[in-house]
Amino acid sequence: FADFDLGKLPRALGALQDLSGTCDGSVTARGPIAKPRLEVDVGVRDGEARIGDMPRISKFRGRIRGDDQELRLENVSASMGAAPLQMRGKLQPKAQEPWKSRVDIALTSKNALLWRRAGVRLRAGLDVTATGALDALEVAGEIRLREGKVVGRFPWFEFRRSGAMRNPGTISIPALASEASPVRGRLALTIETEEAIDVRTNVLRCGITTALKLEGKLSHPVLTGTAACVARGVDAPSLKLPGIQMRIATALVDFD
Fold this sequence. Notes:
This protein has no helices and 18 strands. It is elongated. It has strands at about 5, 15-30, 35-50, 55-65, 70-80, 85-90, 100-115, 120-135, 135-150, 160, 165, 185-195, 195-200, 205-215, 220-230, 240, 245, 250-255. The model is unreliable at about 155-170 (pLDDT under 50). The chain starts with a strand and ends with a strand.
């Protein structure tokens, strides 16, 4: 087959959105008719997709080669926020129970764009692996934050004219798979800052460093650890509340 449009594939993965691109290649059956051996050689080019609320993955290209026992990812690369991504690994398919198929995949990047929305921009170095069956994945590794920025109005609190404070909602962490998705698993990711996140809002001005863990189910991530407030450049950290402005000497927030 040639020039197959990936946009025609069903959205089976739940969180996977806006899939596009082109693939070509061959699937060959050899051996007895009762139990043929399949050989696969498929290439993808100009692929694009988005996972949940994360930035779009573009310029996806590479090949998948192997047989019905094991498929290998070869020369797979992509771009996320104009930063290159590299992927390597293998898949052991199970035709009768596709969600029991096992993967062993590693994803790396030096400066991927993780988040850009509502005044928040985060870039990071990635060293992440996904291993196990598709319905029991273990996603682990390191996320090293750099070039982070938070600007605009403080995202979690509003101050009324009376000076009272209300919380309009909790801090939401985007799910990597929906409850309805057959792809399930758990997270074990560390999130640390190589460069302090530059925070400049109507309430808080400082740098933020983190020592966090992202754990729990893919459908319900949980953030734990600490975030500290530090000086950013020549500006001393400051907190501004109705009728008062304070300089911050030290500040530490625990997530639990």
